[in-house]
Structure formats: C-alpha cells, structure tokens
C-alpha cells in the first residue's frame, strides 16, 4: 500500500515536472498569425525556429497582436471579435472572449493593465482587464444619435490614453482611461473617412490617412487644443478612388532620422516627410503600390512590400541615398514584415508559399525559412516596450 | 526495497520541481547594483518589488549591465574586471570570469552572440562568447608601441561593430567583429582625453566628451571616412579643470524630438543641441552640476541628477518649455535613474538611504520604495532591444 502511494505520488510529480515548460526569457519570442487555420505559431528570433503552435483562435483572416509588459502573453485580436490571451511560455490559450462581431485590432495601456479592442461592429472601443479579460468599460463610437462608426488606427499614448479615428464620423477621438471604468473622451474633427492611423514613436503626433479626401489629418497630442491640422494635401491627388484592399497600412509607417517614410495611396511611390515641418521633401519611385513601409530600427533602410498582384516583390530603400538599392523576391504573397529589435534581420510572411522567410538586412540574403500555414502578421514581443503598438 | 527506491525518486523529483523557479516573462525585470556588498537585486517593474538577491559579484563600486537578447541574462561588468553572467530567472550566477584588472563596462553585439568588455587595465577590449564567456579575441588599446590606453564609452553598433574612445590616445576606434576571432579596427583622431561617449539611439552618431579641451568629438558612423568633427566648441569654455568624479555621465544623454540634452561640464546647465546641425540651441539653468541627463521615453521630460554635495536633488525639465518644472528630493545620494520602457515611472537609487524609490513621472509622486544596500546603477531588460546599451 505504502509503495503504491509513493508510486502514485512519483507519477504525479513526474507529470507536474513534465508539464513545466523549459525556463526561458521572453525577449526574443514572437507570434506568427496563420490566417486560414485560426492558429498562431510561437517563434524565437534568436534560433529562428518555430517552437510551438496554439490553435483555436477563431477567424484570423485579419489579426493584430499586442503584448503584456513582461512579454509573456500575446493578446490576439481576430477579425471575428475574438480576443485571445496566448501564453507564449506554455504555448496555450490562457483566456479567450468574443467581444465584438467584427474587430480590427487593439492595444495595451502604458502601465500594462488595460487591453483595449477597436471594433467595426459594434463600432467603438472595449476596455478589458489585462489579467482576467474582464470587461471594464466601453466607448461606443456614437458620433450622432443612433449612429456608430467603425474605429481604426488605435494607438496607446503616455498617460493611460488612447487615440483612434472614426471612419464614418470623420473624427479623431482621444480617450483617457486613468479611471478604467469611467473613460473620458475628447473629439476632434479630422476630415473625410479616416481609414487607418499611426502615432510617432514618441507618442506625440497622431496621423490619420483620409480615404475621402486628399491629405492626412495630424493631431499634436501635446497640444490637442489646437485641433487637427491637414498635411500633405497633395498626398493622393488626382487618383480615382481605389479598392480598400489596396490601401496602405499606416501602422508600419517609418519614422527614421527625423523623416517619415509613407506609402503613397495607389501610386508607385514612397513619400518622404520632414517631421519638423510635416512637409513632403522627396518621393522615391518604387515597384508598385506600397502596403507596408517599414524602417529598420537604425533608420538606415526602409523595406516596402506591395499590393496584389505585385506582392511577390519587396524593395529596400537606402534612406540616405533616398533610392531603391535592392529588389527581392522572397516568396509568393508577402503580407507582412517584422524586424528583429536591433535590426540585423527581417522576417517576412510568404502566404502562398506557406512559409516565413528570414533575411539578413545587411547582405539581403535569406538566413532561414520556417513552415507556416498561410502566414500573415508577424509580431515580436519587443513591441511591448514601445509606444504605439 | 522497491518502496525505498520510489521514495528516493519521489524526493529527487520533488526537489527538482522545487528548484524550478516560477515560470515568468523577462520583459519587466531588471538588476540593481548594490555597491558595497558586491551583489545585485533582481527586480520587477510591474509589481515594483525586489524578487531576489544574487551575491558574489566582486567589487561593484562601479558597474554596468548589458542584457542577452532574450532578457534572461544580465552581464555585469564590475570595477575589478569581473564579468558575471547572472540568470534573472533562477537568480543565480550562471558563469563568471575575472577578465581584467580594472574595467569600466561592456556591451553586447547586435546578434547577441558576443559580449565585449571595455577595460582600463590592461587597456583595451576583450571579446567573449555570450553563452560560455569563453574569450574569443582581444583588441589591446595600443596606440603607440608599448603604450596602452584606457577605453571608455563603448557602444554597440549595427553590423557587429563597436565604437569606443581611448582616453590617453585621444582617438575613437571602431572595431568590426563580424569574424569574432579576427577583429578589424579603424582609428580616428578625436581630440584630447575623451572621457566617455554615447551613440545616438539609431546607432549613427558617436559622440565623445573631451576632458582635455573644449567641445565634443562627433563621428558619423554612416561616413567614418569623413573623420571626426568637433562640435560645441564652447561646451566647457573658461572653466578650470574639474575633478573627474564630477564629470557628467554621457551614456545617459537624452535624444528627444531631434534634440540632444547634454549635461554641461561643471556648470549648472543642461545644453540643448539640434541633432541635424549639432549646434547648441538653448541652455537650461539647473540646480547644480548635472551627472545623468535622461529623457523619458516619450521625450516630453528630461530628468537630471547632480554631483555631490547636491546629489539629494533631482530636477525635471519640460522639453517643450525648455525649463525646470519640478525639483524633487527623492532621497540621499541619488546615483542613477532608469525609466520603465514606456515611461510611466522612473526608478532612482538613493545610495545613502539604502533604498530605491519609484516615482510616477506624471504626478511626480513616489509610488514605491524598495530596500537596497547602497544601490547605484539600475538596469532594466528592455535595454536588450535598444541600440547602444
Ligand atoms: C485599420 C487596420 C489596421 C490597424 C489596426 C491597429 O491599429 O491595431 C490593420 C493592421 C494590420 C496588421 C498589424 C500591423 C501592425 O504592425 O500592427 C497586419 C499584419 C495587417 C495585415 C493585413 N491587413 Fe490590415 N487591413 C485593414 C485595416 C487594418 N489593418 C483593412 O481595411 C484591409 C485593407 C482590408 C481588410 O480585410 O480589413 C486590411 C487588409 C490586410 C491584409 O490583406 C493584410 C496585409 C494581411 C492579412 O492577413 O489580413 N493589418
Ligand atoms: C566611462 C563610464 C561609463 C560608461 C560605461 C559604458 O560605456 O558602458 C560609466 C557608466 C556608469 C553607469 C552605467 C550607465 C548606463 O546607463 O549604462 C552607471 C550607473 C554609473 C554610475 C556611476 N559612475 Fe560611472 N564613472 C565613470 C566612468 C563611467 N561610468 C568615472 O570615470 C567616474 C566619474 C569615476 C569612477 O569612479 O569611475 C564614475 C563614477 C560613477 C559614480 O559615482 C556613479 C554615479 C555611481 C557608482 O556606483 O559608481 N556609471
């Protein structure tokens, strides 16, 4: 009997130990969205390997990830309104709620305690406790009685605030969540149909792209009382309206050395804008319609991917020479790119080749390939320590 | 017999499990140097607590820490030449070598594979494998036959390179460690007695402070062939030589919104320099001789501590108003400051009060106090994802 007891406890202990995943740092981990299977891959950018797979995240045909401040948990916002907290160390779902009918992304507060979802349907923000995913409050994007707008371009700001744009309302809103159960919101007229936005790396300038008119809407968050200023009035000038799937993604906008590198809408150009004056200073001709325009962390290179049918090509701009210095063919349907935190490598999703490819940004040669089922977004935990992700 | 065996294995398993530390992310951890006891405290800036103590690091009367790319290991460079790899998760020494007689700090390569120590005695660099601490190579700072210089201001650069200054030689050297066993070094005349240096956050501009003459030496690492340019010729003008312990620390220099905020040498001023022209554009009067001048990550505030006997005071500059907006007394002998990665809080070492104090940067009120034995440097793992730390 005693021997049996001991044996049982030994087995119990053994399985408890076996269930304990390897002890490891989380600073070099990331998640890759696998679009068609509703799962994410946990990866390491040190060993350039796929470590594990976490299934059961719902519709990931479009998704965004934000990270807990310790880098252990990724909050995955799926297209179907699913918000899933993934434990990267145990490679499993920690919690999951379906919080909306249609969601486009989310963000985390400066102190790491609040996770905020931005939704298309019902239009607005929802605020969750980052630990428990308990809903704490809601900001319906009701811009006129009974009228709710889609929310785009959500960005976290210093001071527990969030900025975002309302597509139908043509407004930028700034919500203060210092008291997470009682949001305080300020509204600023922005222009027609803001379709995405970004905040500069210092959290000061919030810029929304406008679909319904030329130019961009700029709000100086150090001086919101001054209201929105229209910049780059010639940004999309003279183009006929373009299908939304060809709209560039603004989150990837690159601010490097005091200049912002922006995808032109529809045109085969990348715009260079002086962030002191917000005037255009140059245009760099590129292969096709840019989607993501991203600066390597040191700002010396800007990488650009393109809209269908040219999405098998990626170009590299030298920011000092202000011209394309390399044209690569990393795979079919390059949907997203993510740099390692200090920029020696870049990871690219090749959706139609079912792989993620890693390039050396110095030699511009492939370093590794990882299998992935229709990969799209790639998100490293280093986002946790940056403003605006 | 069988029962005994099982019992023994159960105990073994039990202790194996017990030895396994809690699974956790490493993105919100840090180390605090405890000067007089040769130990470091492992801390979390989420819960603002001291988690563990790691003793046995030798002489930490001056120390620097750099981090592995996963944020799990801190490499602590002690004054006595000790290089100790500390495992933050297990709170123990992983490896330790005594690699020099007198060392001032170190850094880690862009790919995370090489740890480099900068030494006063024998003057030069030593290159180690980041995993094993095996020495791979050495760059003696021999600037003339038989003459070795102290090395200061080491900074990692993109492309496995490192920049540093040679005090006695009056030179800046850039070493390429692409082949870690065969370093390649370029030398640039810099000016008299560079005593410390920094690199801008993008890894482009390396700036050394000069003790033996007025002004600073600037090397554009995108164009090293252009050589060193002298900037801020009036930087220390008209002052009599000052004791070295009052020299400002340059690593803390703050680049915010395109302006660099620099401690004046000896004078009670902080200088504001335009990073496009490298001209001085303003001077902000402060309480005493500044030591560390550090920008909050969003660039809206710059925090300044001071030389003895005024080291009980800390001032906060509003970077837009370009004036001091707050004067704090966080404790006795404030030696160092470190911001949380997104800037909501700042940690300050109060050596003579044996504590670390945490301030809310918004309200500028204390949030927490942690006991620490004569604390000096505070280093968070978020340094791992930045260039130049
Ligand atoms: C507003 C918006 C954001 C910013 C969210 C935030 O601020 O957190 C965003 C983010 C994103 C992000 C997160 C970027 C980041 O760095 O945070 C990615 C990878 C992404 C990949 C794509 N998006 Fe996205 N995306 C849209 C809108 C947006 N996408 C569209 O309206 C569009 C054009 C059509 C749609 O179906 O919604 C669209 C199609 C795509 C794609 O086809 C992409 C390239 C591949 C895919 O799998 O959907 N979108
Ligand atoms: C060159 C140099 C560096 C940069 C290392 C690097 O690039 O990695 C440095 C870094 C440092 C760093 C790391 C800064 C960082 O953010 O990386 C800290 C906290 C620091 C705290 C101090 N230093 Fe430091 N320090 C000197 C030199 C330097 N200190 C001196 O010459 C001086 C004046 C006299 C001495 O005894 O060496 C000196 C005294 C001090 C102190 O008195 C401080 C304030 C408290 C202490 O415990 O010594 N020094």
Describe, in plain words, how this protein is organized in 3D.
Two copies of one chain form a homodimer. Chain A has 389 residues and is mainly beta. Chain A has a domain at 99-246: 7 Propeller (Methylamine Dehydrogenase, Chain H), CATH 2.130.10.10. Chain A contains one helix and 34 strands. Chain A has one helix spanning 2-19; strands at 29-34, 39-44, 49-54, 63-67, 73-78, 82-87, 92-98, 102-108, 114-121, 123-129, 135-140, 142-144, 147-148, 151-157, 161-166, 171-176, 184-189, 194-199, 205-210, 216-220, 228-231, 254-256, 259-263, 269-274, 279-285, 290-295, 301-306, 314-318, 323-328, 334-339, 345-350, 355-360, 366-371, 375-380. In chain A, the strands form nine sheets. In chain A, strands 3-2-1-34 form a four-stranded antiparallel β-sheet, with no helix packed on it. Chain A has a four-stranded antiparallel β-sheet with strand order 4-5-6-7, with no helix packed on it. The longest helix of chain A has 18 residues, at 2-19. Chain A is globular and about 55 Å long. At the A-B interface, helix 1 of A face helix 1 of B. Bound molecules: heme D (2 copies). Residues 35, 62, 64, 104-105, 152-154, 196, 244-245, 247, 249, 251-252, 291, 335-336, 376-377 of chain A line the site of one heme D. Chains A, B: Keywords: Signal. Chains A, B: Residues 1-18 form the signal peptide. Chains A, B: Pfam families: Cytochrom_D1. Chains A, B: This is Protein nirF.
């Amino acid at each position: 009997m005693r021997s049996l007891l001991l044996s049982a406890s030994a087995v119990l202990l053994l399985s408890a130990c076996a269930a304990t995943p390897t002890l490891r740092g989380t600073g070099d981990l990331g998640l890759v969205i696998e679009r068609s299977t509703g799962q994410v891959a946990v990866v390491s950018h040190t060993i350039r390997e796929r470590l594990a797979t976490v299934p059961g995240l719902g519709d990931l045909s479009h998704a965004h990830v934000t990270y807990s401040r310790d880098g252990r948990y990724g909050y995955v916002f799926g297209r179907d309104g699913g918000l899933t907290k993934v434990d990267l160390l145990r490679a499993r779902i920690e919690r999951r709620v379906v919080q909306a009918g249609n969601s486009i992304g989310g963000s985390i507060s400066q102190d790491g305690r609040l996770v905020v979802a931005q939704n298309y349907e019902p239009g607005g923000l929802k605020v969750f406790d980052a630990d428990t995913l308990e809903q704490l409050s809601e900001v319906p994007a009701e811009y006129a009685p009974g009228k709710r707008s889609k929310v785009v371009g959500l960005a976290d700001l210093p001071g527990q605030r969030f900025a975002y744009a309302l597509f139908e309302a043509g407004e930028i809103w700034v919500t203060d969540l210092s008291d997470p159960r009682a949001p305080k919101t300020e509204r600023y007229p922005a222009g027609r149909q803001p379709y995405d936005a970004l905040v500069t790396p210092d959290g000061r300038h919030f810029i929304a792209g406008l679909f319904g008119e030329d130019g961009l809407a700029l709000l100086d968050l150090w001086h919101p009382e001054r209201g929105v200023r229209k910049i780059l009035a010639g940004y999309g000038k003279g183009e006929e309206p373009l299908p939304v799937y060809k709209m560039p993604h603004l989150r990837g906008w690159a601010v490097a050395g005091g200049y912002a590198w922006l995808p032109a809408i529809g045109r085969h150009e990348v715009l260079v804008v002086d962030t002191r004056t917000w005037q255009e200073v140059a245009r760099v001709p590129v292969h096709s319609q840019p989607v993501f325009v991203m600066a390597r962390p040191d700002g010396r290179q800007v990488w650009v991917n393109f809209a269908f049918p040219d999405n098998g090509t990626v170009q590299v701009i030298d920011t000092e020479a202000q011209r394309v210095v390399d044209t690569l063919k990393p795979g079919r349907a390059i949907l997203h790119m993510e740099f390692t935190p200090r920029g020696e490598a870049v990871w690219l999703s090749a959706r139609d080749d079912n792989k993620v490819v890693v390039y050396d940004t110095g030699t511009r040669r492939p370093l590794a390939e990882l299998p992935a089922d229709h990969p799209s977004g790639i998100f490293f935990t280093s986002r946790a320590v940056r403003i605006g992700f």
